[in-house]
TrEMBL record:
This is Uncharacterized protein. Pfam families: PG_1098_Fer (PF22013), Thump_like (PF18096). Residues 277-319 form the PG-1098 ferredoxin-like domain. Coiled coil: none annotated. It comes from Flavobacterium sangjuense. InterPro entries: PG_1098_Fer, SAM-dependent_MTases_sf, Thump-like. Residues 320-390 form the THUMP-like domain. It comes from the Bacteria.
Length: 392
């Protein structure tokens, strides 16, 4: 950590250039010869990333950033705040502290918080930043988290872990055993220090695969931000062996869409031809796989087993996009030529043999406008097109 970056002159320079293209600044001569120019530029680039993702850090003076990539990879404040709502108690230890965004919010929920970070420079950065953020109940330790946990030898209410994939992990298959720390291997060790464990994983992790590696899973939270799944949260409780709750959450500017169900429920969907309204589940529900639960919880019916679109005659509050069907027709040459060819429309395919790109090219349909088209398959296995107006 280059402390010269925290000088008043350099901090003023960073702030005054926050809206300037860093690649253009890089062509300029270093205005501060005693400090590294690349480091200063990196601070500007990282702070630019933080403006929307980490507004608290962005608005706080003398924050030191570890680099643009670290800021890109860290939790957003919105998802960090969501995680904090899931914990309570006196003490929490974060075994993979990183930039400390999650811990900033955890610190509001517990009396004592321990931040472990294997990278000593990042640990030093976080220790500096928590002083600027006026956190009084958080302590930073640099080193191997398992060694720190054993050395502290305390009971915690919660252990939090955000394991990172090893660089040498082969292929696209994402398994927890391929991450650092190796959580499946260390679970018994962790449960010796806490009864509750929260594990954050990337959304690429398959839920079934995660369950095959973990034990004592009590709940899985699928967290999306503005309809983009950002993380899976695995809640483990020592000796827990009952049913697993799946919680889907889509955090938006205006509201929080939540949908909860028990994993393994023998739910069966009700089916129907398209009615007046059509519903598309949000990304968190799509990731959860709880498609058959939807017709049990909401007064809707499914268009087809594999379409994952739902319909009703009465408008309902639904966790996802909502449309009013203005026209429904069979997908064929005649109908496409008379209704959509050379028009402008937003296109989505669900359980349909052609891609969006192919449909646009084939029928010369431009992107955009106020018409929303679903190319899908109905309950009778007919290929159909729904022309809709968006309500939500």
């Amino acid at each position: 950590m280059d402390k010269s970056i925290l000088s008043e002159e350099i901090q003023e320079f960073i702030t005054s250039n926050i809206n300037v293209d860093v690649s253009k600044l890089a062509l300029q001569k270093n205005k501060f010869p005693a400090s590294d120019w690349t480091t200063i530029l990196n601070q500007i680039a990282a702070k630019q990333k933080a403006e929307s993702k980490l507004p608290t850090w962005f608005k706080t003076s003398n924050i030191y950033y570890p680099g643009k990539i670290s800021v890109e990879q860290t939790s957003s404040e919105k998802t960090a705040e969501y995680k904090s709502e899931l914990i309570s108690g006196d003490k929490l230890i974060d075994l993979t502290g990183g930039f400390g965004v999650d811990d900033f919010y955890f610190s509001k929920k517990v009396n004592q918080l321990v931040h472990c970070e294997i990278n000593p420079e990042l640990s030093e950065i976080v220790a500096h930043n928590i002083e600027q953020l006026h956190l009084k109940n958080m302590e930073c330790f640099a080193g191997d988290s398992s060694e720190i946990l054993a050395k502290l030898n305390q009971k915690f209410d919660w252990i939090y872990i955000d394991p990172s994939r090893r660089n040498d992990a082969k292929g696209k298959v994402f398994m927890l055993k391929d991450c650092l720390p190796n959580v499946p291997e260390l679970l018994d060790f962790y449960f010796g220090f806490a009864n509750n464990i929260m594990i954050k994983t990337a959304p690429i992790l398959d839920i079934t695969a995660g369950l095959s590696e973990l034990k004592n899973v009590k709940a899985i939270h699928v967290v999306a931000l503005e309809n983009e799944v950002k993380e899976l949260l695995w809640i483990l409780e020592k000796n827990y062996s009952k049913s697993i709750e799946i919680v889907t959450c889509n955090l938006t500017k205006d509201a929080t869409e939540k949908f909860t169900f028990k994993l393994g429920n023998a739910s069966v969907s009700n089916y129907s031809l398209p009615k007046k309204y059509v519903y598309e589940p949000n990304a968190a529900i799509m990731k959860s796989g709880g498609f058959d639960e939807i017709t049990t919880h909401f007064e809707v019916e499914k268009l087809h087993q594999h379409s994952h679109l739902y319909t009703s005659d009465t408008l309902i509050d639904f966790p996802g996009r909502v449309f009013e069907i203005e026209n429904c027709f069979e997908y064929n040459k005649s109908n496409m030529k008379s209704v959509l060819e050379n028009k402008k429309a937003n296109i989505t395919t669900r359980n349909f043999p052609e891609t969006v790109e192919n449909i646009r090219k084939k029928w010369k349909i431009k992107d955009g406008g106020n018409v929303y088209c679903f190319f899908t398959t109905d309950v009778n296995n007919n290929k159909i097109v729904l022309l809709c107006g968006k309500l939500k």
